[in-house]
Sequence to fold (146 residues):
Amino acid sequence: MAKTPHLDIDQLDNAYQTGEEAFHELIDGMSIGVGVYNANAAPMDCNEAAHELLGLSKEQFIGNSAMDPYWKVTHEDGSKFETYDFPIIGAITNYQPKLGVIMGVSRPLLNDKVWLEVNTHPHLNPDGTINYVFCTFKDVTDQYDD
Fold:
């Protein structure tokens, strides 16, 4: 019978740190924004492109809610995004990805607006509940006249 290897807490901590470093190596090199949100839609982490697209520091990104009225998020037709319209909420509510959502986001600190294509992908726990949601942001401003 094969013996199961025993991992002590230091080995587990090392494995976690290595995984965390590999994750950041991957997302930090991407030109699209990547955010990670918890099951309550609160930002947990992001890459540099994500907070740059939104005109914020990483700390400000993590400190803001995705549905904060500060952003003045609009649909392509100019109507306001309601809470239930946000792709992160859709992924959490329906346990399904929300793909290709176009969002106009006001960036008060930069005094402008950016158009983003947003994709969300929920990651489920073994019991079927939401663990976290990956969200990507791609700048598509050049496709929209404002």
